[in-house]
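[Backbone geometry]
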Amino acid sequence: MQFIKDFKSKINQSAQLIILIVILAIVFYSKFNFGTVTVQAVVNLVVLLLMLGSIAYLLMDNKLFSAHIAVLILYFSSAAQAFLNSLFSLQFSPFGLLNPLTGLEIINFIIFGYLALMVTSYVLNGGLKTRAIKSYIGLLIIAFVGYLWLFNGFNNAVYYFLVLAAIYLFGSDKSVLIMLVAMLISMLYFSIYSMTIYFILTDLITAFIEMFLLLITVKFSIDTFKNI
C-alpha cells in the first residue's frame, strides 16, 4: 500500500505530463482509421480530436489528476477486462490461451495499470480539492446524464458521468464543455445514421434532444472561450 501511495511522488509532474502526452499519441494512433475517408470516419476523427483537445486543456492547466482519470475511463477501462478474459481462457491440453492478447492489448493493459496506480496514489495522498464550479455547467451535465439514463441505460450514464464529473470538479470549464460537445456530436451522428437505416420515433426524439443539448453546450462554450 505504501508503494501505491508513494507512486505519485516517485514520478514528478513533468514526467507525468510527458507520459500522458505519449499515451494520448498512442490513443490517437490506435483510434484513427488511416486511409479511410467516409462520413463516419470524418465524424470519428472530429470527435477524437475534440476529446484529446479536452484532455490537452487539462494538461495545459496542470490538472493532472483529472487528466489521469479521464484518460483511464475513456480509453483504458476495458483493458483489465480484456486481460482477464485472456487469462481465464487458459487451457492445459494443449497448454495455451484460447484468446491471447494482441500486442496493442498488452500495451493497453500496461497503460491501464500505470493510470490506475497513479489515480489511486493521488487519492491516497489526499489534499484533493474541487475547484470553484459554475451552476449552469453542472445543470448541463445533469441534463446530459439524465438523458443518457432514460434513453441509453444506467451503465452508459454512469460511465459518462464519471468522466465529466472528474473533469468538472477537478479540471476546467473549457475542458468539460469540449468533452460534452464531442460526446454529443458522436451521439447525434449515430442517431441520424440510425434513422437513415430504419426510422423509429425514438431515434427522432433522441436526435432532437441531442441537438438541443449540443446547441446549448456550443453556446456556453463560445461564451466561455470569449472570456479567456
Observations:
- The two ends are 42 Å apart (CA to CA).
- Residues 80 and 109 are 6 Å apart (CA to CA).
- The longest helix spans residues 201-226.
- The chain has a mean pLDDT of 86.
